[in-house]
Design goal:
alpha+beta, Immunoglobulin-like, Ferric Hydroxamate Uptake Protein, Chain A, domain 1, 3 domains, five-stranded mixed sheet, 23 strands, 20% helix, elongated
Length: 485
């Protein structure tokens, strides 16, 4: 064996490896020198630590998350850029070489916060709730003066149907959120005023008859409303339970703001008339029509002897049959509506207040129907300390409602009575008293004047609350007492 050749080969291989190692050693040393440990603390503009910030080396799959105290540590090359991102804050990108262990301040990003809406069981993006929550502001209410809250909502909320069943002053209205959900149970939504659910059954079923129902929100003056929100999805049920199965109408009244006292006056005046009257027969035309009917009957039956005509048709000298009036003209009249109110609001840094009072006088187009309402409200809020706020919401409403049974079927309906009562029937007896029920036909004017459906209501709503501030979830304790008469 040639040991000389083997030693020569080993020398050559060793020499080559030495050259390669000598050439690569500076690069290894440089690479090792550029990889550094970066650490620091992420805080907001108030120098409060931010937990859960995503810290990543851009261009690499390397990242960490800041801990409870906002601290972090990450390995990166000095030439790399490190990204700091967190929901609710603007993303910030800094070179690794500039990070020397100090604080990294992130600015609030209000545009991102606006994209989230807190619901009963968590949060959702605002674009995902476009069809689930609808809002009406006080500016929308002021642009169209109305007498009650439900009227103000008509035509302004998608997916919500509001129908006035009678149009009588102070009458109830049918409201459906995304249609009817039950055939046997109620379909009305839950009303919540300043966080307090409002009972509607006792006020909408007065006299045990829906025809005489009252508007459950008639005690609220539109001038006191700050905003109206309608919850239409299942999130409302997670807050209010089964009562919210038909949706929720959240109403917030006006609050005082820090600053000088502001006095706002509002008033409105309206006139109402029936759109048109139906064309009906007068007394002479009605008699001719009835007599023609008798003659046609005799011809059809082939009777040799004429059928005796009822006395109410031919006996015009009888005081009972001497009428010649238009019942529609006697029943319908021009109705006037007047509303006036004042609101005083203001406050200091430690105390805010909002005081208001209003008066509504609304007449109906049907004779002897009218609704009057007087409301007063006081909303106050005090800063008991840096962390505790105490407030009260107190309202008193006095209302009177003279109602007329305009709906219904048959003789129960005043509108049916005035259209079917013959024009020959007199309005009064010679002594001035009303002529009543005659041959199955009621006197509609007597019904409007003599049948009383008067409801007088005293309603007090009081709400005392206190809440903790400067915590992530506000803690509120509320007390409510209500009295109606």
């Amino acid at each position: 064996m040639n040991y000389f050749n083997l030693d020569k080969q080993k020398l050559i291989i060793g020499f080559c490896l030495s050259i390669i190692f000598t050439i690569c050693l500076p690069f290894v040393t440089v690479a090792s020198a550029q990889n550094v440990t970066v650490s620091g603390k992420v805080v907001d503009v108030n120098n409060a630590p931010i937990m859960g910030v995503n810290i990543a080396v851009m261009g690499e799959r390397r990242g960490v998350v800041s801990d409870l105290n906002g601290l972090f540590t990450i390995q990166a090359d000095k030439g790399k850029v490190i990204s700091f991102s967190c929901l609710g804050y603007k993303t910030r990108e800094l070179p690794a070489a500039e990070l020397t262990g100090g604080n990294i301040v992130l600015q609030d990003d209000a545009s991102v916060l606006d994209e989230l809406v807190v619901i009963g069981y968590g949060t959702k993006r605002k674009r995902d709730l476009t069809g689930s929550i609808a809002s009406i502001s006080s500016k929308d209410l002021e642009s169209n003066p109305v007498k009650d809250v439900l009227t103000a909502m008509q035509g302004k909320v998608a997916g919500v149907q509001i129908i006035s069943s009678s149009g009588a002053p102070g009458s109830s209205m049918q409201i459906r959120v995304r249609g009817a959900s039950s055939l046997n149970s109620g379909n009305s939504p839950l009303y919540v005023v300043d966080g307090i659910p409002i009972e509607t059954t006792s006020t909408s079923l007065l006299n045990v008859d829906d025809e005489h129902g009252l508007n459950p929100l008639s005690y609220l003056s539109p001038g006191d409303i700050e905003s109206i929100e309608v919850l239409k999805d299942a999130a409302s049920s997670s807050i209010y339970g089964s009562r919210a199965a038909n949706g929720v109408v959240l109403i917030t009244t006006k609050r005082g703001k820090e600053g000088k006292a502001s006095i706002n006056l509002f008033s409105s005046f309206g006139i109402s008339n029936i759109t048109r009257k139906l064309s009906v027969l007068n007394s002479r035309q009605w008699r001719e029509f009835i007599l023609e009917g008798y003659r046609n009957y005799d011809l059809h039956m082939g009777l040799a002897k004429e059928t005796a005509v009822h006395y109410t048709v031919v006996d015009s000298l009888n005081p009972v049959n001497s009428g010649d009036g238009d019942w529609q003209s006697l029943m319908y009249n021009t109705a006037y509506e007047k509303q006036v109110g004042v609101n005083i609001s203001g406050g200091t840094k430690a105390m805010r207040y909002s005081l208001s009072t209003s008066y509504l006088d609304q007449e109906g187009i049907i004779r002897n129907s009218k609704y009057k309402r007087f409301t007063t409200r006081a909303n106050t809020e005090f800063d008991a300390s840096e962390f505790i706020k105490v407030g009260t919401n107190i309202s008193y409403t006095y209302s009177t409602n003279d109602r007329v049974s305009a709906g219904g079927m048959g003789n129960r309906s005043m509108v049916v009575a005035l259209l079917t009562r013959p024009p020959t029937y007199a309005l009064n007896y010679p002594d001035g008293s009303y002529l009543g029920y005659l041959n199955g036909k009621r006197n509609p004017i007597a019904l409007a004047e003599e049948c009383l459906h008067l409801n007088t209501s005293h309603r007090v709503n009081a709400n005392l609350f206190h809440k903790m501030v400067k915590v992530q979830n506000q803690l509120q304790h509320r007390f409510r007492s209500s009295e109606r008469g």
